[in-house]
Amino acid sequence: MNIMKKISILAATFSLTALTGCSDFLEQELKSDIPGSNYYTSASGYESLSNATYSTLRTIYGGDPWLFEGGTDLFATGRTAVNVCNLYSQAYTSANDAVETFYREHYKAIALTNEVIYWGNGDASRASRVAEARGLRAIYYLNLVQQFGGIPLITNRTIGVMEKAERATTEATYQFIIDELTHLSTSSDLAESATDGRFNRKAAYHYLAKAYLSRGYITQAKSDFEAAITAAKNAGAGKTLNTPFNVLFSNA
Fold it and tell me: What are phi and psi of 167, to 5 degrees?
């Protein structure tokens, strides 16, 4: 009996020693969970965040963005049926996969641009990236307002879960987009033009023209169409077609 008791005590002591000795080994360290305050304050971390805002363009435009053409005269049903043939009828609801994906991916992209703006505000060395993010955000909102009318305008960094978002009017949404692009079209923080795909002043003029033209079809205001013409001319100023239309479409 004494022997068994001694064995039990030794076993318990050994187990306690083993557990104590392994305590450091068992402690978890989640190295992939790097706080934004640590990563985005570094130059490389902030640059990767800025690049991420451009990668969302591939998500939105690179797949099958049916909402850009489904239900219009640009779209025709082929041999394979798709769920967008009647996109602008009773199927045009959040229950439609194309609609839900389009809406969700745009707001994910907007959230990234807001992060770039938040972590870059007040830092002169990051002013160009902040301006680029504002330009991309304006594009995303332009896509959304053209499809859904008034939408939630989220212009600040989002922390945690948003349980409620107020829907802005169509007029307020267009005005926000136009104000942003008007500012960016003359901003010294952006290059006049670029060949690396980054948002620039020419791009700002281009989308400003599109925003005025799109709003003009709603307001039927002559001033919107005139502003669209002016912005479009500024976007194309100093540029010529590689092949003039009269040559490209000539029968000769």
Answer: -85, 125
